[in-house]
Amino acid sequence: MLHTVRTTSPEEAATFIHQGEVVAFPTETVYGLGADVFNAAAIQRIFEAKGRPADNPLIVHLATLDQIADVAETVTPAAAALIQHFFPGPLTVILPKCPDVSDRATGGLNTVGVRMPDHPLAQAFLEACGCPVAAPSANRSGRPSPTSWEAVHADLNGRIACILQGDRTPAGLESTVVDCKQSVPLLLRAGVISLETLQSVWPDIEVAAPNDPRAHRSPGTRYRHYAPRARVQLVASPDEATPHPEAAYIGRDVPSSGGFGKILRCETVDRYAHELFAFFRDCDAAHLRIIYCQTVSATGLGRALMDRLQRAAASHT
Ligand code: TXA
Ligand code: MG
Question: 32 CB less than 6 Å from ligand 1?
Answer without folding.
Answer: yes
